[in-house]
Amino acid sequence: MKIIILTEGGKNIGFGHIARCHSLYQAFRENGYSPELIIFSDNSIEGLLDHAQYQIVNWLKKPHIVFQLLKSATMAIIDSYLAKKSLYYKISEIMNGRVVAIDDYNRVEYPAGIVLNPSLYGNRLHYSKREGVTYLLGKDYILLRRAFWNIPKKHINRKIRNILITFGGTNRHRLINTVTHFLKEEFNCNFYTIGPQKNIHDAHGTLNLMLKADICISGGGQTIHELARVGVPTIGICFAENQRYSLQEWRDRGFIEYIGWHKNKKLLSDLSKGIKKLKSHKKRCQQHKIGKALVDGKGAMRLLKVLANKRWIGNIG
């Protein structure tokens, strides 16, 4: 069975969509299926996809390429902030409703198929429930790459020695440098960064840094789910409006210290205050437990089980 996965990402718009689509690619491959990633991107994704079968295509402007691929496909998955509503409906028509639309904020009214919101707040959005659409919403469907499915136990050290900084895939190295320089003046710690400039995109490299880090300073994209899975006490910074719901929900659940918008004039002093709060070993242990309780790494397999129950795919292991 052939599954087409359509998404976008790169150094200017981030890698979160690609990461979660890669998790689905890996889940399909684990169960003997033949997925293919079609990505609107640039060459910055090299090294990110672990020998996956993918094509870099501007499928948003060349949909005829997609339509041709779908002729031999069993189903399609779309994860996009850029695709027009009309394109979703055309693909759903071609696939007889066998389409999974991954959504973060109820962006459009989706056609027949499955709407998947893999986030902590997904079941709190007001989707207009429509005939022919199945809604899979919330934390049980959070999608993580294979490296995060089964992970070693993380030890929470008494003192903060290692601080990880990751602001997403977009090119924010100047802010990372500013933050790192400021914090080095105040805290006697080792600092590690994840981002395009450091060329650390692979899941295993990311996991190892998260296991090593005592705390993390992070944006509010896909990385926050991986941090929760590992249980890394985190200070959250908002870089885009679509991250706000996520960060507020993680704060309300007790997993992160949320310090607001990245352009906040008090960003550096608020970061300093956040780190000082997390010096409490008890508080970091609490955040660790909360994160791990909320994200179990099984979201991709749960989706496949739904697809099998719908008979869009065969049985899975």
TrEMBL record:
Record bears the keyword Hydrolase: yes
MF annotations from Gene Ontology: hexosyltransferase activity; hydrolase activity
Statement: the UniProt record of this protein carries the keyword Signal: no
Top-level taxon: Bacteria
Ranges of residues in domain Glycosyl transferase family 28 C-terminal: 208-289
InterPro entries from the UniProt entry: Glyco_trans_28_C
Pfam family, one: Glyco_tran_28_C
Alphabetical UniProt keywords: Hydrolase
Name the record gives this protein: UDP-2,4-diacetamido-2,4, 6-trideoxy-beta-L-altropyranose hydrolase
Organism in which the protein naturally occurs: Candidatus Aquitaenariimonas noxiae
Lineage, opening ranks: Bacteria, Pseudomonadati, Candidatus Omnitrophota, Candidatus Aquitaenariimonas
